[in-house]
Structures are given as structure tokens and as C-alpha cells.
Amino acid sequence: MDILQAIGSTSMVQLRGGIFAKLEWENPTGSIKDRMALAVIARAEADGRLRPGDTVLEYTGGSTGASLALVCAAKGYRLRIVTSDAFSPEKRDQMKAFGAELTIVPSEDGRTTKKLILDMIETARTLSREPNTYWTDQLNNHDAIAGYFPFAEEIWTQTNGEVDAFVHCVGTAACLRGVATILKRYKPSVKIIAVEPAESAVLSGGQPGPHKIEGVGIGYTPPLWDASLVDEIIAIPTNDAKAEARRLAREEGVFAGTSSGANSLAAQQVALTLKPKATVVTLMADSGLKYLNTDVYKR
């Protein structure tokens, strides 16, 4: 068994309020993104888009970068990452530890904005023109969706097919779409709830704005978004998501990041609207260890 075979098969635990959460920090880099990183690299290898000796390139806030760095290290590829000071130093350090070469795009006061995402994409686009470069381009890469099919199968199995709702923050939308595709195939009545930052609630019809829920809320509708699979959209303010992340750690021993706090709050809202004892599933997207030097935990 090599390190890549350790991806997936994560635990599901019950939180207070009856919510069930997949602990995605159990993946090798401490986040759910290991699932999509393995899928996009393996599928590109399979059809010849990625060949031995090529360089892999991506723009990312950190978790995807660390996951790609793990996969590239295990498979022997050079990796170049376009990222920003808007994201936690732990994430940048982790990417470098796996051997990734970083290009830093400056942010506006450390916040995620539409302009920042677009600047990162354009920087990556320029670098992608260099020879023997495979740009994974996560916002447009349909291979990422398939990376979450096994995740959905795990949810179905762990709930004995009794899942009533799945709740998750939207970044690229690949996870929500992948899970929805499988769960609705098994159980068409299952509710799929998207979560986004209240300060940039574009999926709900609002205006883009700066926020500090890392890895989600890109400021425009992600290309992989499929509204036909989504039953409801819930907007959570950044400060509430941070406070919930701290509460989860302090009161439940669940140590996760900001988007996980948003997931938890949204899942609690959903549970109140469903029948008693409905099974609402969400996930802890990554470990709180990735945020120790941010104002989520260092105050």
C-alpha cells in the first residue's frame, strides 16, 4: 500500500444537534482535496494529457495545492502553484514541504475577492504556456467531479442509505456536484444544500464581496456549478463560521477550519426544517491545524 491508497474511507461522526460529519482531515494532507487531486492527476495520466517529465500547474488557496503536491511527490512530477497571502501560512508551508514551487499573488488586506481569484487564474494561464506543462485548472476540470463519487458512496454506506440531506460550502462546486450526482441516483428525494459566504452570496443572487472563509466563495458562479442538483442555498457570515469552528473545537473536540464551521451552522439550519431524526450529513473539510496562525484560532 502506498500513500495514495490512504486517501478516502474517512470516519463519520455525530455532532450535537444530530448532524453527521465526515472527518476529511483523515486524508493524508488533512483535507478533502486529496480526493480530487488524485482523480485529476490519474485521469490526465490515463489519457495522455500528463506525461512523465511534465510539470503540473495550478492556482489554489492552499488545500488543493497541498493535495496536488502530495500526489505529485508520490508520482514524481514537478509542481508549480499560484497562490496568495490571503490564505493561511500553514497551507503555503505545507505545499512547499511537499516540494511545490510557489508564485504569490498579493491580496487586498488578506481577503478573498473576485479580483484575486481572477488574478491568480491569469497568472496560472501565463505559466501554462511554458512547454511540457499540464494545468489542472480546478475551476473548469470535470475530472474533479468524479473524484468525489467514492466520497458519496461512503456517505451512502455509512448512513445505511438513510441520508436525507447533504450540506457543503461551494468552492469549485466539484464536491457538491459529485456527491449530488451519486446520492440523487440512489435516492432522488435527498436534499442537496449549498453553502456560501454571506459577504459574497452570488449563488443566492447577491453581489460579490470580500470574505475570509478560505477555499470557497470565489465571487462568481463556478463553471462546474449545476443548479439543477441543488435544492437550497444558505449564506453564512464569515465571523459566524469562525465562531462555530472555535465552538466545535472547544465544546465537541472537533478541530476544523472556517468552511467546516459554515458547514456545521448550515447543517443545523437544515436539520430544523426536516422531519425529526432526519439524517443530515456534512463534512469537516480540513484540519484546524491549517489555521493556527490565522484569526480563527490565534486571537
Based on Cα principal axes, name the global outline. globular
How many H/I helical runs? 9
Question: For this structure, what is the CATH class of the largest domain?
Answer: Alpha Beta
Beta-strand percentage range: 15-25%
CATH topology of the largest domain: Rossmann fold
Q: Termini, distance in Å?
A: 41 Å
Largest sheet: 6 strands, mixed
Strand count: 10
Radius of gyration: 18 Å
Low-confidence stretches: none
Q: What is the domain total for the residues?
A: 2
Helical proportion?
25-40%
Task: Trace the largest sheet across and list its strands.
Answer: 1-2-10-7-8-9
Protein structure class = alpha/beta
SSE topology string: EEHEHEHEHEHHEHEEHHE
By CATH, the architecture of the largest domain is named: 3-Layer(aba) Sandwich
Mean pLDDT: 96
Task: Describe the protein's architecture and organization.
The protein is of the alpha/beta class. The protein folds into two domains: 3-26 and 143-291, Rossmann fold, CATH 3.40.50.1100; 35-135, Rossmann fold (3-Layer(aba) Sandwich). 36% of the residues lie in helices and 18% in strands. It has nine helices and ten strands. Helix 7 links the parallel strand 7 (163-169) and strand 8 (191-197). Helix 2 (63-75) runs parallel beside helix 3 (89-97). The protein starts with 11 loop residues before the first strand and ends in a 15-residue tail after the last strand. The mean pLDDT is 96.
